[in-house]
């Protein structure tokens, strides 16, 4: 697989240049068919490590490996022509050492054709972000609620309320200053998201943040109703595909049991049909 960027897709600089412009549209994707459905509608698509919870039934993102990200990244890549692809660096692939982060980020990009990586963390990750950017890896940062730190954040709580606000603001400044081309703001108060958006020179991508952010992202299985284990307050369900799929499965099961499926139109005749007639 070649590491060449898609010709029609925006790159990190195009995304950065959208600061203050028409809001950036983004969703997560993990498979080729879903990526194809969003290619015409999204500016960038994130192969999120949420794949672990959404598709693999893990109870957090901590068990997601490089191999899982590469497999899903390759699948998504096959479904995109126009949208940029960003891929998450999984837990324990970048935190310890900038050189190790570089090796893993380069591998993710080379093997999946992603145009950038995303990693979680603010002030404490600024050195790593700078190291990657200086070596040709565009980085999207992710601050506020950072699910890979769930064990030290004490749960999936709103971040940056009251006297925590300055720390989140400092994270935003640090990642922008380190060279990130954009930053995801997850589950922080609206006023703080607006303040960060007004202050930093790179696009803010909100998820549970504010409509005033420079763009928005949601986990696709949340917004179409496939992932129903829980629904965060910031998710809007644009469809209820989970119940629809279950109803279809139940109908299929009933028809198999009463032998009404397969019907005549689903089976093949013993004799080959005459030429020109389909069967
Ligand atoms: O992994 C993911 O899906 C994410 C989004 C929630 C931003 O990081």
Tell me what the structure shows:
With 279 residues, the protein is an alpha/beta fold. Helix content is 37%, strand content 14%. The chain contains eleven helices and eight strands. The chain has helices at 12-16, 32-38, 51-54, 66-78, 98-112, 126-134, 150-153, 165-178, 190-199, 220-223, 241-257, and strands at residues 24-28, 44-47, 84-88, 116-120, 139-144, 182-186, 204-207, 215-218. The protein has an eight-stranded parallel β-barrel, surrounded by five helices. Helix 6 (126-134) runs parallel beside helix 8. The chain is elongated, with a radius of gyration of 21 Å. Bound molecules: 3-methyl-2-oxobutanoic acid (KIV).
Short description:
With 279 residues, this protein is an alpha/beta fold. 37% of the residues lie in helices and 14% in strands. Helix 5 crosses helix 6 and helix 8 packs parallel to helix 9.
Q: What's the SSE pattern?
A: HEHEHHEHEHEHHEHEEHH
- What hetero molecules are in the model? 3-methyl-2-oxobutanoic acid
Kindly name the structural category: alpha/beta
Poorly predicted spans: none
Task: Give the mean pLDDT.
Answer: 96
C-alpha geometry: elongated
Strand content: 5-15%
Radius of gyration: 21 Å
Side-by-side strand order of the widest sheet: 1-2-3-4-5-6-7-8
Write the layout of secondary structure elements.
Elements: H1 12-16, E1 24-28, H2 32-38, E2 44-47, H3 51-54, H4 66-78, E3 84-88, H5 98-112, E4 116-120, H6 126-134, E5 139-144, H7 150-153, H8 165-178, E6 182-186, H9 190-199, E7 204-207, E8 215-218, H10 220-223, H11 241-257
Parallel strand pairs: 1-2, 1-8, 2-3, 3-4, 4-5, 5-6, 6-7, 7-8
Helix pairs in contact: 2-4, 4-5, 5-6, 6-8, 8-9
The structure holds 3-methyl-2-oxobutanoic acid.
The site of 3-methyl-2-oxobutanoic acid (KIV) has 11 residues, from loops.
């Amino acid at each position: 697989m070649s590491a060449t960027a898609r010709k029609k897709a925006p790159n990190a600089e195009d995304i950065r240049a959208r600061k203050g412009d028409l809001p950036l549209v983004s969703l997560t994707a993990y498979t080729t068919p879903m990526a194809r459905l969003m290619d015409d509608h999204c500016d960038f698509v994130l192969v999120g490590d949420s794949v672990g919870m959404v598709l693999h039934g893990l109870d957090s993102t901590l068990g997601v490996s490089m191999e899982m990200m590469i497999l899903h990244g390759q699948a998504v890549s096959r479904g995109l022509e126009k949208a940029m692809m960003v891929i998450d660096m999984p837990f324990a692939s970048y935190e310890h050492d900038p050189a190790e982060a570089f090796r893993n980020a380069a591998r993710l990009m080379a093997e999946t054709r992603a145009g950038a990586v995303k990693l979680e963390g603010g002030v404490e990750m600024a050195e790593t972000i700078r190291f990657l950017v200086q070596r040709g890896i565009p980085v999207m940062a992710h601050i506020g609620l950072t699910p890979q730190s769930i064990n030290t954040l004490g749960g999936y709580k709103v971040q940056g309320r009251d006297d925590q606000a300055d720390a989140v603001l400092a994270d935003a400044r640090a990642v922008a200053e380190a060279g990130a081309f954009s930053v995801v703001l997850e589950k922080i108060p609206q006023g703080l998201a607006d303040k960060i958006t007004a202050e930093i020179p790179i696009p803010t991508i909100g998820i549970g943040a504010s409509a005033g952010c420079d763009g928005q992202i949601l986990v696709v299985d949340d917004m179409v109703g496939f992932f129903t284990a829980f629904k965060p307050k910031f998710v809007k369900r644009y469809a209820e595909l989970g119940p629809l799929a279950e109803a279809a499965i139940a109908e299929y099961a009933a028809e198999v049991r009463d032998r009404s499926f397969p019907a005549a139109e689903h089976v093949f005749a013993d004799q080959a049909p005459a030429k020109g007639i389909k069967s």
